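Sequence, structure tokens quoted for completeness.
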Amino acid sequence: MSEVPDAWPVLPVMLTSSVSHLKSDQRWDNMVATLESHYNRIREINIFDMTNSRWERFAAAMQKPFPELTHLVVTVFDLVPVVPDSFLGGSAPRLGELRLRGIPFPTIPKLLLSANGLVTLTLWDIPDSGYFSPDAMATALTAMTRLRSLLLRSRSPRPRPDPASRPLPPPTRLVLPALTELRFKGVREYLEDLLVRIDAPLLHHLSVIFFMDLNFDLPQLHQLIGHAERVKTFDHAEVSISRHSIGLLLSLNTRVLNHHIHQERLRLHINCKVFEWQLLSLAQVCRSFFPLISTLEVLEINQDGFLLSPRWNDDMEDTQWLELLDPFTALKNLYLTDKIAPHVCSALLELSGERVTEVLPSLKNLYLYDKYPLEGSRQAIKIFVAARRRSGHPVRVHRGSRSEGWEDITEDLASGD
């Protein structure tokens, strides 16, 4: 039999508390006691069941340095007090992953200045009491040369700042050499003020959700995208419309061919319940991204299955589609659902004579999904196809699906009533 050593080696400690442990006060007491007595050995902390009643003891236990801590994940279900700037003793030298959800931590940029080993930073559901300025966050990012993933999501839109009070951008941008993923939810001004200070040449996964605004001019976001070499290869766009938002997804066409979402993508959503404003706001975004949008060859437009109410049809003016489609000058293939098709075709018919190809001048193929009945859009599509043929820029119409293939119905439309 092997001899038992006189003392076990000092092993790293990993603490986890999940939703299933919400009612286990004894388990929580043990966890806090471990935080207080073994803070110098703790490697990982994962807490997914934090409540207001437990917050005070947890926050008090986290006021000292954790020299071995590499992963910290905390999700709060309740409203909790603001985190003091003495959290983690103000230093996190080995921290590689930090994920906080629902936690007000306005001084977190100060802590991040010492966390220069961070690879993943996720600040989710940031309450108003946890607000920190884009200038402070950009300053904190200066030391994060290893950061690969950055996520900032606000719980609600803060009052938009007075343009005169916004600080001047620095003369040079901070380059984040390892950043490949950026996710953001908030107001347009915040993101623009942050991006005027940073650059990410390796970025290839971008997801942005904006609260509704009347101005979606995004020069800094466009510049960030323009500097990301892998984004320039995107050739596929998808517009998704729902009751509460409108979204734009840019990706490689391999997503269409292989029936899966490619890892490299740019996704932008605008939270808005007014259908008319949805098109207008996304049209502004597309104009702001014009050099990138103008090279895309594939566009898919679809709507949420609940978007069948008469109010949606009444609120959408066909001419608004022209503003949205105008930047897609290289588009060759357009995919539409039956509820979208008559609006798009009717809008394009607003252009007559020599102007019929002013919008979508390179269009070659129109694809209609066969899971929707064609009767509602047949006449508009027929007139559109005839007008393009007379202009010398014919468009073929296909019916079917990607999984089962497409049938060319152009001649059937031409010969039908």
Remarks:
- The radius of gyration is 26 Å.
